[in-house]
Amino acid sequence: MSQVDKQLDTLKSEIEQEIPNDITVTDVKYEGPELVVYTRDPKRFAGDGDLIRRLASKLRKRITVRPDPSALSPPARAEEEVRSVIPEEAGVTDLDFHEDTGEVVIEAEKPGMVIGRRGSTLREITQEVGWTPEVVRTPPIESSTVSNVRGFLKNEREERRDILERVGRQIHREEMSDDEWVRITTLGCCREVGRAAFILSTPETRILIDCGDKPGAEGEVPYLQVPEALGAGAATLDAVILTHAHLDHSALIPLLYKYGYDGPIYATEPTRDLMGLLTLDYLDVAAKDGRTPPYESSQVREAIKHTIPLEYGDVTDIAPDVKLTFHNAGHILGSAVTHFHIGDGLYNVAFSGDIHYEDTRLFNGAVNDFPRVETLVLESTYGGRDDYQTDQADSEEALKEVINETYEEGGKVVIPAFAVGRSQEIMLVLEEAMRNGDIPEMPVHLDGMIWEATAIHTTYPEYLRDDLRDRIFHDDENPFLADQFNHIDGGEDERQEVADGDECIVISTSGMIEGGPIMSWLRHIGSDPNSNLVFVGYQAQGTLGRRIQNGWDEIPVDGWGGGGRGDTLTLEMGTEVVDGFSGHADRQGLENFVKTMNPRPEKVLCVHGDERSVQDLSSALYHDYNMRTFAPKNLETFRFK
């Protein structure tokens, strides 16, 4: 019998000692980080609302109780009873019964009403029918991504259970080493923006944090080939952590499965869905540009299948000696600051990912409240001495001023923006400005993946700012459903019709003008001197967006990004830069993130910024807070006791 099997037997005995004698436990298994308890008496378990909580506290495990198949009501009868328990106002749209696990997936417009106060309705459902309810939200805006991911995971349910059982046994394996050290190896995004990737190593465990590409630099990928990374074999990785879905952090995650990785990815649920959306588009753009994609769509599906979604604040075992906790990063939907608790309180490391410290229209500001952090790996995109962004209210006024002036000239406003994050932020500003009469009402055309990304935002309102979440819960107040928003389906005829029409606003991907539909809008509108191109997000070095900001007006509109010779366009429309909408903290926000940590970290590694930015921030933190700081280069390893 293996050590894990012995552990499960011991846990089963401990559970049986804690529960009433008339409750039978038929099996105990690990599925990923969770301990799953099978019982013939799910109704009795549900009758004691505190029983599972007491067991979880005593065993220090996340526990799920599932019914033994013999305890289940037939699905047809169960559906009738489930619907009778759930309030009609919950808006149940689908019930899906899975007899292999005894779970019923309930899709509803208002999941909170299905859950009930402190889970009371869920317990009532189990008491009535024996089935274990799982609740998901019906998207207020139909999302093909959410629908496809849910359908795919449903079809792969059996294989996914096998994956989770294998991962669970790996997490709870016996610790073999008495050594006590922690290593961080930098594989990318050091003294540069993009291709984020780090290896976190302990004597027991190797974890990859992020695996992205570099905007505007085709072929510059993380140093995965070195022995510390995949040079030792992808199968030697225990886990992959994805802080958020932007391609400079996620683009090459599916590549790991091409190289033989078969383990888990830990991310929030919206990050999982957005990763699927953005990486599939990444393959599509590569093919259209005539480049060989680095992996296939089948590897994107493998990444989704292997993702174990975690919620903010859940402390989760991901290895024998590592616990992981996600916290809101305030950057984009589902973005996470990742905190690693290593050993028995031996060492604590936090990776900021990309953060925004202040509240925005979309998100609450980044969380920096940890029990302990010895080492912080901190993004430094705007860490330069003079990188202070305009106050958000001033930025919004500046944007409205540009729109009003362009409207009076009879022109159009074209805003290149990331599909995820900046686009939704700008949509909220425009919706309120038109509602309040600050700018004229006019169509706002959304091109590229913006509408689909917006639909995903409305699927997960619990990840949004509190007041915005409340508005989305009421369809008549959902700002993303405002009449002025028009989804462009990608046809050139439709774009030409918009270009030939009246004043309007266009928000289009890609945000750094690296291919995508924005190139088409430059062809259609770029020669109009009455129109304006408005930058609202960071433009990385080497991108066409940065070059236009720096004064380029001869634009390659066909061959850009494909390596071929294409047509050029003389840009006659005006260009404006409106700071303050970035999803990144500025210099003050980064300093405040560190300054308000209690206790502060002993060491800070400043990464994800150009050379000037990381060195400026590193120097300032050292002088102001007397902590050891570093501005590492790629392929450096830091060892901590």
Based on DSSP secondary structure assignment, what is the total number of beta strands? 28
Largest sheet: 7 strands, mixed
Over the alpha carbons, how many angstroms does the gyration radius reach? 25 Å
Strand content is 15-25%
CATH superfamily heading of the largest domain:
Ribonuclease Z/Hydroxyacylglutathione hydrolase-like
**Strand order within the widest beta sheet:** 12-11-10-9-8-7-28
Shape: globular
> First CA to last CA: what distance?
35 Å
* CATH architecture identity of the largest domain: 4-Layer Sandwich
The whole-number mean of residue pLDDT values reads 92
Total discrete domains: 4
Uncertain segments of ≥5 residues (pLDDT<50)? Answer: 559-564
Quick take:
The chain is of the alpha/beta class.
Protein architecture, described:
- Residues 98-168 form the K Homology domain.
- Residues 423-548 form the Beta-Casp domain.
- Residues 181-385 are annotated as: Metallo-beta-lactamase N-terminus.
- It is an enzyme of class 3 (hydrolase).
- By secondary structure, this protein is α/β, with parallel strands linked by helices.
- The chain folds into 4 domains: 3-70, GMP Synthetase, Chain A, domain 3, CATH 3.30.300; 72-138, K homology (KH) domain (GMP Synthetase, Chain A, domain 3), CATH 3.30.300; 146-171 and 182-385 and 584-639, Metallo-beta-lactamase, Chain A (4-Layer Sandwich); 392-577, Rossmann fold (3-Layer(aba) Sandwich).
- The strands form 6 sheets. A 7-stranded mixed beta sheet has the order 12-11-10-9-8-7-28.
- The radius of gyration is 25 Å and the shape is globular.
- The protein starts with a helix and ends with a strand.
